[in-house]
Design brief:
single chain; alpha+beta; Beta-Lactamase; 6-stranded mixed β-sheet; 5-stranded mixed β-sheet; rod-shaped
């Protein structure tokens, strides 16, 4: 909080802002019970904050006359109007009583005043003429008896009482001011925090709007990539295949090698473009799944047959194992094969000659999803029947601290094997998104030099969403 704000909060303008009315009333009541002197406390603008008194007998008697009521009203108005800016004021009453009006000062500023009285000065012995002539019906004996019931106090006693009351009020004001400052500083702090949060929210909204615009531009760019690059690239790959097949004549060994390089680079670039487009669709939730029942055995064997030529060329053994009790799955065959192809191609890429890649299936359970409101009850919920499809290799392995990162788009494990074999870093990210779209999970178990096992867990046909 800046010094100017603190100084502004410390400056007290109104008695009502800092005084504790309950404490003020209790203090005035204790003085009244101790000295039998009425006490009233007013703010600067005349607002009555505390009034402790009993109606005096002489006041009741005077108010039985119309002229007496008028005189009493005028007196009260005079007392409320008096400004004791220079110090305490003693104001006489026509009944012979007196009021003492004392300013309430705090931090050099007058915040109000308190009035003690009416009381009869101890020096007064006779009923004043001003009371006897207030009305022709006033009875001197009755007036004398009524006035005699009013408390009689010496002037020096009144001065001591009012001085003591003033000191007590100072303590009440100090305590109230401290509480007032604490509250106001808390409110000011809350306002400042709210202002800061509002500014942060505005900045976040601007950033969000910019990200949305960038996302729109990215989608437009990918659409352009699809139209402007994919179509001619397909033609390049197609003509390369025709050249390699000898459609326009036989090629010598060097020419055939060049054509094979063109076709290989074209396939790699087409895979990258396709991966980008698939990732964009997955992020926008535009990928629809055409689910149909499928046996896990057929799925694994199909993938193994497809990858077998590449495995033989590299000298890696590929096998597929599926027990008879594994139930069917309700999946999109194209998308699930895409997932397994990505996993098997990765396994083959990082498995050296003489190694092995093993595809397997088994029955398992899929944990119930936690929506955040189950308060841990998900731990007690039964798992859903599921099928686990695993791809295990005997390759270089993945460090444990990289396990959570490899499913991020464009992320690649930093190692010589990764750099040697290249890759776009999109395959595992796409596979992970496709498995989640099927309501399943994709995890990895691996350690450097011990190979890797990727596990795809999908709901059984009856439990599929």
């Amino acid at each position: 909080m800046n010094p100017a704000m603190s100084s502004e909060l410390a400056d007290v303008a109104r008695l009502e802002d800092i005084v504790d009315r309950q404490a003020l009333g209790e203090v005035c009541l204790s003085f009244f019970e101790l000295f039998a002197l009425p006490i009233r406390v007013f703010s600067t603008d005349g607002t009555l904050l505390t009034d402790v008194h009993d109606e005096q007998a002489v006041c009741r008697y005077v108010n039985t006359f119309s002229s007496g009521r008028t005189a009493c009203s005028g007196l009260v108005a005079d007392v409320r109007r008096l400004d004791p800016s220079e110090g305490p004021i003693d104001h006489p009453c026509f009944t012979g009583a007196s009021y003492r009006i004392v300013p309430i000062l705090y931090q050099g500023r007058r915040l109000g005043r308190f009035v003690v009285g009416p009381y009869v000065p101890a020096e007064r012995r006779e009923v004043p003429r001003s009371l006897l002539v207030i009305d022709p019906g006033v009875d001197p004996e009755t007036a004398r008896d009524a006035l005699g019931q009013m408390p009689r106090v010496r002037l020096e006693t009144v001065e001591r009482i009012t001085a003591h009351l003033g000191k007590v009020l100072d303590l009440i004001l100090f305590s109230g001011h401290r509480a007032f400052l604490t509250t106001e500083m808390h409110v000011a702090s809350v306002r400042e925090n709210y202002r800061a949060l509002t500014e942060k929210a505005a900045r976040l909204q601007d950033a969000y709007d910019q990200l949305r615009e960038l996302d729109r531009l990215k989608s437009n760019f990918l659409a352009t990539v699809s139209h402007e690059l994919r179509t001619p690239l397909t033609s390049i790959i197609g003509y390369s295949d025709m050249l390699a097949a000898g459609v326009v004549g036989s090629l010598n060994e060097e020419q055939a090698a060049f054509v094979e390089t063109i076709r290989g680079r074209g396939d790699h670039l087409l895979a990258l473009i396709t991966g980008l487009l698939d990732m964009n669709k997955l992020e926008q939730g535009k990928v629809s799944l055409a689910r149909q029942p499928m046996q896990a055995r057929d799925l694994l064997e199909d993938v193994a047959r497809t990858i077998l030529p590449s495995a033989i060329k590299k000298g890696v053994t590929v096998s597929a194992v599926c027990p008879d009790d594994v139930p069917p799955l309700l999946v999109d065959p194209v998308r699930i094969k895409q997932v397994l192809f990505n996993l098997v191609e990765n396994a083959l890429k990082f498995t050296p000659k003489g190694g092995s890649v093993r595809l397997a299936a088994r029955r398992t359970e899929l944990d119930a999803p936690d929506d955040g409101g189950g308060m841990g009850l998900v731990l007690m919920a039964p798992g859903r029947p599921a099928v686990e499809l695993s791809v295990q290799d005997s390759g270089v392995g993945i460090p444990p601290h990289e396990h959570a990162k490899i499913f991020s788009a464009f992320y690649q494990v930093d190692g010589s094997a990764t750099r040697e074999h290249g890759g776009t870093g999109l395959g595992l990210a796409i596979a992970h998104r496709l498995v989640e779209a099927h309501g399943g999970t994709l995890t990895v178990e691996s350690a450097p030099g011990e190979g890797a096992t990727f596990r795809v867990v999908l709901p059984e046909q009856d439990g599929a969403a």
